[in-house]
Structures are given as C-alpha cells and as structure tokens.
Design a protein that fits this description.
The chain is mainly beta and 121 residues long. 0% of the residues lie in helices and 56% in strands.
Length: 121
C-alpha cells in the first residue's frame, strides 16, 4: 500500500541544477533511512546519497559537494538538490525509503519508479 512518487527529473544543461523530490504515501508508521540511487545505461545501480532519521548524510564521492540530500519528515519526503550537474550525472534516479508500516513490523525498503535526469554537454 506504500507508494513512493518521484518528481523533478528532466533535461538540464551541464552546470545547471535540478531538485528531485520523492514523497511516500500510504500506511506509514515511521521512516528510517531515505536515499537516492541512480543507474546509467550500461552501468550498475549506484548509491548517490542517504540520510538517516537523525539527519546524518552520506554521499558518493562523485557527487560530494555538488548534491545535497534532505528530508521533510512531516511530508514523508526526501529531496535531492543537484547543482553543477555534469553529463556523467545522466541516469535514472531512484529514491528509496526504509520504513515501517506498523510499530511491530520490520524495516522494509520501498522504491520509487525512477525519474530520468539528462545532462547535456
């Protein structure tokens, strides 16, 4: 019943910025870690950034200093602010959330449908 809806992808020129959003809906008790993965053609899916419920963040070296992950717990939403975009950032970006649907459930991973980010040179 939990669904993650992504938005904000699109086409941008190198050096530009995009802001991705991912909002969870449905029966949600709590959300632990939120994050973003991306997958470029011919490459494995890679972790981009994570943010814990306490606000601790981690970033892939390739995006460190350019991307910022944040969350709005009241809105069950995770964001990825991307600046100084490079053509190599082109990929499908997937959000995920480790969350509980009830107080006595185990954490489970939920994934968004993916949103295309294309950075032109």
């Amino acid at each position: 019943q939990v669904q993650l809806l992504e938005s904000g992808g699109g086409l941008v020129q190198a050096g530009g910025s995009l802001r991705l959003s991912c909002a969870a809906s449905g029966s949600i008790y709590s959300i632990n870690t939120m994050g973003w993965y991306r997958q470029a053609p011919g490459k494995q899916r890679e972790l981009v950034a994570t943010i814990t419920s306490g606000g601790s963040t981690n970033y892939a070296d390739s995006v460190k200093g350019r991307f910022t992950i944040s969350r709005d717990n009241a809105k069950n939403t995770v964001y990825l602010q991307m600046k100084s975009l490079k053509p190599e950032d082109t990929a499908v970006y997937y959000c995920y959330m480790d969350l509980l649907i009830s107080a006595r459930a185990w954490l489970r991973a939920y994934w968004g449908q993916g949103t295309q980010v294309t950075v032109s040179s």
